[in-house]
Every structure is written in structure tokens, then in C-alpha cells.
């Protein structure tokens, strides 16, 4: 008890100060020995610490690809190019998956070719690439694409547009190739199905889709090999055909009719995937494969036969919504900004794929028609028509792989995305009406 008091109060017997002073000396000697090397290391090895710091931040970025804020906090349609800067401060979320950018450092601007960049998906991708400071070359033959989709970049020194058909070779010095060029809608690919499998029918009118998929993809892979660029193929959920497995996982090989009216597209994309993997294995090209599920948004072709654009255009024109079959077949609909984020993460990441990029929310055609009615016109009528050949009954992506390896998942729901598309369609359709009106008045004068 007394000892306890002495100890706590700090006075009393002589033995304690003696003990304490020897302890203190021992401790300070020990600390000097200990701190000297630390001081030495801190003073002399600052550079080493600097690099260790950088490595730790890089490790954190790699380990938490979804850590950064979602891109959806930036409205996709507000992203515009800034022609005054060739390099931009790093938006760290852009490269989290690739882990190539160090926190706080400026990344080197890349030269990127986007084939099919004047189309629906391509033009949104170009917006994002230009906005982050890269130089973009669009290669497009305007089969389904439109200059209007890219006009806001005209005059930007970091943007170039080349009218070119990818079935012919082209040489460009680039770091990355996003290969999107391909008519993606049934109306267009069924119009010209044989440009589809190989170039022997080069001059034949019915030769477009497979030729584009096979010869076009070969040409772009050849370019990637020649200039050492990374190559990303936009494949499709159509490679699963009318799937016997639901939802579809990347390991599923599909159930495709090789001789049906849709085969030019399905088999063309399957062959494009094969070529991509063969170039990867055989020539060491860095490749990425995305399997895209139904995507919608502003700038889609208005009359392209795809279900979302069909319904929206019909409702705006006060026509009945045409549902094929009983309307119970299901699809998943992904908003375009979600897809673009997935494509960029895939390109910048370390994984070849294939990766499913789609929204797992599943709707029947009738449910979709209802959402369109709610958004545009509650009185819009629904009209049933016989189903088209080989129309898949079910489609829904399993996106676990993309979630896990790319830190990606869609975040725009159909009810939030559809109004953005509707206002774009409304504007374009009223523009069409004005144009028709102007022509009519010129003719009548
Ligand atoms: N939008 C979707 O729902 C969806 C789904 C699955 C896959 N994809 C794939 O994504 C890519 C882009 O699709 P999208 O919806 O933007 O289609 P889109 O038709 O709007 O765009 C395709 C673009 O490629 C161009 N093109 C076509 N053939 C060409 C050729 N031979 N040479 C040069 N340019 C050519 C067109 O002019 C157009 O600009 C396509 O490869 C498509 O197969 C899209």
C-alpha cells in the first residue's frame, strides 16, 4: 500500500530515484541507438520513402477499383472536350482498373482510334475519351453512323474523322484501338448480310456484316500488331444465340443457329472473337473482348428495328407500339453511359475477357412497352405481330465477372435512362418534321 503511494506520488525513499535515473539513462541510450538509424534512414533514404509512398497509393488503387466515385455523378451528356489542354490532371477514377496512373500525377494523353465512332455507342465513347484529354481518330464509313453525332468535336485539334471502310486496311500510329465498326441493328445487318462472312463477295451488294466483322476485324488486328496497340473488340450477347442457360455467363458457349437470318451478325461476331483470341495467342497482341447486351440512349438510329428505339419513336409519332410474338420474351436494357464506362475500364484493365457488359434488370417486351407508355404517352396502343425468326426468348447477363475484375456495374435504371433518350428522339423527330415541312412549302411554292 505504502509502496503504491510512493510510486504514485513520486516522493519518499531514495531507492526509487536511483532506480529511475538508471532506467532513464538506459532508456535514453536505447532510444538514441534506435532513433539514429531511423533518423539516418529518414534523412538519407527520402527517395526510397517517396517510392514506397507511391507504391502504396498504387496498391490501394489496384485493390479498390470501385473505390472512386461513380462516373454517373458526371452527367454523360455534359461531358465535352476541352481543346486547350493536351494533358489533364488525372481523374483518378478513369484508370483505377488499369492501375497505370499514380495518384496526383498527370497521365500521358493517348492516341486512340475508334472504328464506328460516328455511331450510337462510338460517339458517346469518343466524348468520354476526348473529355479525359486523349486524341481520338474516328474511322467510319457512315453506313449507320452520322456526322451529327460528332459535330461538337469538329475544330478540336485532338479530334480527327476519317471516312473509311474497315474492310480496307489502314495504317495509323495509335496506342489503343476500340473496334466498334459494324452495323448493329437487325434492319441494317439483314439488309446486307453477306459482306458478312468473308471478302470473296467483295463487290456483292449483300456482303456487309460478316465482311465487316471478319475482314474488318482482321484489318484492325493487323494494325494493332503492326503498331503495338491494345485492341478492344465490341462483341455481342448475340454470341449466346437463343440461350439454353439463364442468365448467361461468359463460359457459356451459346446456342446459335448457323444458317438463320440473324447468323450473319451472330456468327460474324463469334468469328471476330475467334480471330481476336488467335491474334492474342499467336502474335502476342494485347486484346480485350466485351460482350455487349442491349444498350439504349440518345443518338440511337431512330428506325433501326431495335426494340427500345422502335417503341420510343412509335409513341412519339402517336403510332401503336408493335410487340412481336406474345411479348413475354425478355431483354435487359443498359444505358449507354454505363456501357462506355465498362468499355473504358476493360480497355484500361489487365483482363482479356470476354466480359458481359449489360444491365441485369430483366424486362418482358410488354413491361418495356408499359414503361414507354408511362414515360411518353399513357394512351399509346399496343399492336401484336408474328415473331421474327430466331428471336431469342430470354436474355440477361451474369455480370459477376465484370463486377469482380473490373469493379464495374451499371447504375442507370431504365426509368431514369429512358427520359434522356426520349428528349433526344423528340428533338430529332421534330427536326425531321420541320425539314419535311420546309421541303413541302418549297415544293408547293
Ligand atoms: N447497341 C447495342 O445494343 C449493341 C449490342 C451488342 C453489340 N453492340 C456492338 O457495339 C458496336 C456499336 O454498336 P452501335 O449500337 O453503336 O451501332 P451503330 O450502327 O450505331 O454504329 C456502328 C458504326 O459502325 C459504322 N460502320 C459499320 N460498318 C462499317 C465499316 N465497314 N467500316 C467503317 N465503319 C463502319 C457505322 O457507320 C456506325 O457509325 C457494334 O460493333 C455492335 O455490334 C451494340
TrEMBL record:
Q: Which cofactor does it need?
A: NAD(+)
Single GO BP term: D-xylose metabolic process
Source organism superkingdom: Eukaryota
Q: Looking at the keywords, is RNA-binding present?
A: no
**What molecular function terms (GO) are annotated for this protein?**
NAD+ binding; UDP-glucuronate decarboxylase activity
Concerning InterPro entries, the annotation shows: NAD(P)-bd_dom, NAD(P)-bd_dom_sf, UXS-like
Q: Report the function annotation for this chain.
A: Catalyzes the NAD-dependent decarboxylation of UDP-glucuronic acid to UDP-xylose. Necessary for the biosynthesis of the core tetrasaccharide in glycosaminoglycan biosynthesis.
Residues forming the NAD(P)-binding domain are 114-419
Q: Which UniProt keywords apply?
A: Decarboxylase, Golgi apparatus, Lyase, Membrane, NAD, Transmembrane, Transmembrane helix
**What membrane topology is given?**
Single-pass type II membrane protein
Pathway connected to this protein? Nucleotide-sugar biosynthesis; UDP-alpha-D-xylose biosynthesis; UDP-alpha-D-xylose from UDP-alpha-D-glucuronate: step 1/1
Entry's Gene3D superfamilies? Answer: NAD(P)-binding Rossmann-like Domain (3.40.50.720)
Listed transmembrane segments: 47-67
EC assignment? 4.1.1.35
Protein localization = Golgi apparatus, Golgi stack membrane
Instruction: List the record's Gene Ontology CC terms alphabetically.
Output: Golgi cisterna membrane
Q: What name does the UniProt record give this protein?
A: UDP-glucuronate decarboxylase
Q: Family membership, please give it.
A: Belongs to the NAD(P)-dependent epimerase/dehydratase family. UDP-glucuronic acid decarboxylase subfamily.
Q: What class of enzyme is it?
A: lyase
Organism annotation: Vitis rotundifolia (Muscadine grape)
